[in-house]
Write a structure and sequence with these properties.
This protein has twelve helices and 16 strands. By secondary structure, the protein is α/β, with parallel strands linked by helices. It has one domain: Alpha-Beta Barrel (TIM Barrel). The strands form five sheets. Strands 4-5-6-11-12-13-14-15 form an eight-stranded parallel barrel, surrounded by four helices. The protein has a two-stranded antiparallel sheet with strand order 1-16. A two-stranded antiparallel ribbon has the order 2-3. The longest helix is centred in the middle third of the chain and has 20 residues.
Length: 386
């Protein structure tokens, strides 16, 4: 039996905040509401990185969100860092994603795919030919990786050569093309949470002395090259990017001057007319407090486009963000694990199911597609693909 936790407040939205549930333009599209399903790694893909029918049901159940962002998806075999995560670099993977996007579209939502390369956050058992993971600099992360045989510690990665970096940029472009072929409406570039792009951004780990390290302009080069390549394929209005300026997760210490490096990046992103900037406010899955006096609204104002706020939002925080115009859209992550009908529950001020952490990663339908719906949304639970 799944437990429920009360969500507050229970009153219906009113006044200036009512548009949380109203249509909103985003890039090339008009979304049904301002609620976004954030990307969530659930490790339910096949061993070859192909999506499954169960994944199609899972996403279809949650498609009342204005925008569904698919889970982090590997752009290459080298980019994989966790067991049973999906890919978008083979024909079989592209074909397997098509029923997922079709199911989400049938429910009236738009779906972007998050493009992912983990960098050093991997293990040889997950790498082609058992090779070492890669990074800007050969520095080991003090982190655990979810492998087919359980959690394993990271090893020291090898530093990428310049020609390898350029090849990875090309892999992002091919992955973006594949995502469109799979039926996605666009892509989100994952430049957060201590993965490869953010490893290049931060001087805490990027100790290179070539064209990709040193001054902030050089540390940002890889990110900007990836954005340019992906936007060339998709058009900027079908591309978003996710940043976590103040999150030290996955053993990636903060940059020595976060406001300078992330401010520079966002200023440059304006050149590409992107669909949105998706920002994790505070520590990923942790405190929302922003250290160092860094007002993240600086990034929103510099971007001059749609700003998706993320991290620890509930109904009260989401309504307040809209009342004060601190965000254009609100992304919900963990609440979507146990509440496929989250939009309906928020609209009604209804209680939320509490997620079962034991079923977050791997497994089957239990803890994935079998959480109870509100009575008024019970029809969604049965025949989610009908």
């Amino acid at each position: 039996m799944f437990r429920t936790a009360l969500n507050h407040p229970k009153e219906h939205p009113s006044g200036g905040a009512a548009d949380l549930f109203s249509p909103v333009p985003l890039g090339a599209y008009l979304l049904a509401n301002r609620i976004v399903m954030a990307p969530l790694t659930r490790s339910r893909a096949n061993i070859d990185g192909t999506a499954t029918a169960l994944m199609a049901e899972y996403y279809a159940q949650r498609a009342s969100a204005g925008l569904v962002i698919g889970e982090g998806t590997n752009i290459s075999a080298q980019g994989r860092g966790y067991a049973s995560t999906p890919g978008i670099y083979t024909e079989r993977q592209v074909t397997a994603w098509q029923p997922v996007t079709q199911a989400v579209h049938a429910r009236g939502s738009r779906m972007f795919l998050q493009l992912w390369h983990v960098g050093r956050l991997s293990h040889p058992s997950l790498q082609p030919d058992g090779g070492l993971p890669v990074a800007p600099t050969a520095m080991r992360a003090n982190a655990q990786i979810y492998t087919a045989s359980g959690y394993r510690p990271c090893l020291t990665p090898r530093a990428l050569k310049e020609e390898e970096i350029r090849a990875i940029v090309d892999q992002y472009a091919r992955a973006a093309r594949n995502a469109l072929d799979a039926g996605f409406d666009g892509v989100e570039i994952h430049a957060a949470n201590g993965y490869l792009i953010e490893q290049f951004l931060r001087d805490a780990i990027n100790h290179r002395s070539d064209a990709y390290g040193g001054a902030r302009e050089k540390r940002a080069r890889f990110l900007l090259d990836v954005v340019e390549a992906v936007a060339t394929v998709c058009g900027g209005r079908r591309v978003g990017i996710r940043l976590s300026p103040l999150s030290p997760v996955n053993d990636l210490a903060l940059d020595s001057d976060p406001e300078a490096i992330y401010g520079y990046v966002v200023e440059r992103l304006r050149e590409f007319d992107l669909a949105y900037l998706h920002v994790i406010e505070g520590v990923t899955q942790g405190p929302r407090e922003v250290p160092l006096g860094f007002d993240l609204q600086i990034l929103r104002r510099a971007f001059k486009g749609a700003y998706i706020a993320n991290n620890g939002y509930d109904l009260a925080l989401a309504l307040e963000a809209r009342r004060t115009n601190r965000a254009d859209l609100i992304a919900f992550g963990r609440p979507y694990i146990a509440n496929a009908d989250l939009v309906e529950r928020l609209r009604a001020g209804a209680p939320l199911n509490a997620p079962d952490r034991a079923t977050f990663f791997g497994g089957g339908a239990h803890g994935y597609t079998d959480y109870p719906f509100m009575e008024t949304g019970a029809h969604l639970a049965a025949g989610a693909l009908s």
